[in-house]
Specification:
Shape: elongated
Order of helices and strands: HHHHHHHH
Helix content: over 70%
Number of strands: 0
Structural class: mainly alpha
Radius of gyration: 20 Å
Number of helices: 8
Distance between the termini: 15 Å
Strand content: under 5%
Largest sheet: none
């Protein structure tokens, strides 16, 4: 439980190191919450909304109707607002735990900004997320490094 809550306790902490387990628990829990929000929106959506979302291309009138239907339903609107609020709430801890994870591998946290930049570059943007995930899977450096003590032995203290 400690590792699940640690990224929230270290909300604005971009210093130090984070274990793989801390990073992946945080990432997978947030991914599950995102899927839950999406599933709830789809489950509560009216049939007309499902029909429009299934189309390959929408006319401008259909796109307008899709937006109207999406925000007409109060439950869907509130879920959307809740998801946007949740996304903004986890934005900083997501970046912070990623930077600390890079520190654990003995890489600079500025590399995160490099990955973010690569994700918007055409063609490279297809490979940058995969490369980022591979880097996040690398084991941390053993013992102390330039960014602090080994978190495998200091997280419980």
């Amino acid at each position: 439980m400690h590792l699940i809550l640690l990224p929230y306790h270290r909300y604005f902490d971009f210093r130090g190191r984070s274990r793989r387990l801390e990073f992946w628990l945080f990432t997978l829990i947030n991914l599950a919450i995102t899927f839950l929000f999406g599933w709830l929106v789809l489950a509560l959506a009216p049939e007309e909304l499902h029909a429009l979302m299934a189309k390959d291309q929408l006319t401008p009138a259909e796109a307008e109707q899709l937006g109207f239907l999406f925000f007409q339903d109060t439950a869907i609107f509130l879920l959307t607002v809740a998801y946007i609020t949740y996304s903004l709430f986890i934005l900083i801890p997501s970046v912070a735990v990623s930077v600390r994870r890079l520190h654990d591998i003995n890489l600079t946290g500025w590399l995160y900004l490099g990955f973010a930049f690569l994700m918007v570059v055409p063609i490279l943007g297809l490979f940058a997320p995969l490369l980022f995930l591979i880097v996040m899977m690398l084991p941390g450096s053993s013992g102390a490094n330039a960014y602090g003590d080994d978190p495998r032995w200091s997280w419980h203290s």
